[in-house]
Amino acid sequence: MIALDFEGKIAVFFGDSMTEGYLAGGYANRWSSLLCAERNGIEDNQGVGGACLQSTVSTLGCNRAWFDVELVPEKTSAHGRLFLAYGTNDLLINITNLLNPTNFKLTLNRAVLGCIEKGWQAEDIVIHTGYWFPNLGFSVGECGVTQAPTREIADAYVQAAIDVARQQHCVLADVYHAMQLAPNLNQMSAEGLHINQVGHRFVADFLKALDYTPASDVITPPAGSFAVRGRIARLG
């Protein structure tokens, strides 16, 4: 097992509003800040509210922020790990022929390769699978889209992230399934849309305890995981 210790190095975090720290009760309480404070790291948080991994420029006038590898710093001896935490807003927009799990997987794979070109090793990159909430309705009509994502589509996004982590031998942080099995899951969001301070604390603790050994392409389903039918609230 490889335990997490940033050893005073910079940890870079890319993602959406939950990476940015919305509803964490202050930036010091967001999961990335807690992780760095408690594992000897220097935080570089690049989270942007509403951000997708996939480009939304041509998405029915819905021009969201999206992941841009040009913003990823060149890896230096001062850098430790790079976290990619996307998928929630890609799921929200859910346009079958544009933003979908298949394209998400291709885009995430390209993102990892782009980071590697900037000097990051695959084992430096942590792929975060996103957040899980039970039995919540997903608001439709976002950017003119009327297709409501289902639990099955959410699971497909998560599986895409898992597949890329395994294929590229990055570190897999399966927050989605960890939350699903957490006994205090119903305390992790006050409004059913974003993780709250309890949720940020949970994610930080999960990442602190995670084995940072690179993922294997030998697929082993998460222990005790199961599919739950339903709909998901807008996150991010």
From TrEMBL:
Domain SGNH hydrolase-type esterase: 13-201
GO molecular function, one term: hydrolase activity, acting on ester bonds
CDD domains on file: SGNH_hydrolase
Gene3D superfamilies: SGNH hydrolase
Alphabetical keyword list: Hydrolase
Signal sequence, renumbered to the chain: none
Record protein name field: SGNH/GDSL hydrolase family protein
Organism: Spirosoma terrae
